[in-house]
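Deliverable D5.2: sample structural annotation.
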Amino acid sequence: MGRVAELAGVSVRTLHHYDEIGLVRPSARTAAGYRAYSAGDVERLREVLAYRRLGFGLREVAELVGDSSTDAVAHLRRLRGLLLERRDRADAMVAAIDRELETRAKGLMVTPEEQLEVLGARLYDAIGGAYPATRRTEPRIATQIWDALGDAQTVLNVGAGTGSYEPADRDVTAVEPSAVMRGQRPASAAPCVAAAAESLPFEDHSFDVAMAVSTVHHWGDPIAGLREMRRVAHRVVVLTFDTDEPGWQDRFWLTRDYLPEFAAVLAEFPSLAGMADAIGARAEPVPIPWDCADGLFEAYWRRPGAYLEDHVRRAMSVWTRVGPEAEQRAVRNLSDDLRSGRWAERNSDLSDLDAADLGLRLLIA
C-alpha cells in the first residue's frame, strides 16, 4: 500500500479511506499478510484519482467507476474528453486575459463587470452563450441533412450542442459532453445524455440513424467516435469538413489571406476519405448560402465585416485555437483591407454568388 501511495502521489491514509468506503479495495495479500493491489485494483485507483483531480466528489466518482457498462477504455476516453473541455476553458481564459491586458496597455478602463466576466465563473458561459445568438439552424443546410436522414424515426444526435439541426418530426436523443452547452439547450429540445462520442452509452443498433453536425473536429478521437455512431445506429449522417483537396486552405479568403494558422488547427484532423472509410460513407458537398443563418466559421464569406465583430468570432472555436495574436492580426488586417477597398478588389467574384462550396461535406452511410 505504501508503494502504491508513493507512485500515485497520495497518502496511505487516503488509500485506507478508499478501502473503508469500498471505493478501491486491495484484492491481494503479500506473503506477510499485508494488503496489496492487483493490476485491476491499480487501474480502478487510477480512474478514481483522475476523476477526483477533475473535481468530482467521492459519491460521483463511485457512480462513475462503478458503472458496469463502462470499461477502462471508455473511462480513458471520457477522461480525455473532460480534460479537453478543461483545456478549452483554460485557453478561453488566457485569450480573455490577453484581451484585458491589451486594453489596459492602451490606458483604457476595465469595468468591474468586465473583470468578473473575464476571470469569474461566468467566462465560459459567456463564450458558449454566443452559440444561441449566432449558431442557429440554417434551413437550406438543414433540408440537406434531414433529406439524408430518410425515413428514420429514431435519431441520435451526437455532439448535439444547443440543439441546432435536430429534426422536430423525429424521436431524437441527444448526446453532449459539455455541461455548459447542455445547460443552454431550450426546454423544448430533445432529452440530452452527458457522454462523449467515443463511448456512447447505448446498445448496438439502438437507433435508425446517428447524426453529427459540425462537431467531429472537437472530438478527441474522431474515427473512434464515427465507429461508435456506426455501432449504435443502422445509418450515419455527419456534417464535417474536407481537408483532402490540394490547396484546401485557399478555398476561403479568410484562411488564405488573413489566417494561415487555420491549417495547423486541422493538422491532425482525419482525412475525409479516412472518415468515409471508417463508416462506409459517401460524401456530398454542402454549399453555404451567402446569408447563412448558422454562424459557423465560413458563414460570412460574402459578409466580411461580420468577422470584425467579437460576439461573432466568440461562437467560432477556430479563434480560440489559433490564439489571440493571430486573431488580432487577422482582424486588424481585414479591417484595413475593408476600409481601403483591397478586400473588394481581391474578392469581386463573390458578389454575384448565392452560395459557395467552402469544404463542408455531408457523409452519408
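Annotation notes: Residues 120-127 have pLDDT under 50 and may be disordered. Residues 59 and 147 are 44 Å apart (CA to CA).
The annotation will be released with the project's public dataset once the embargo ends.
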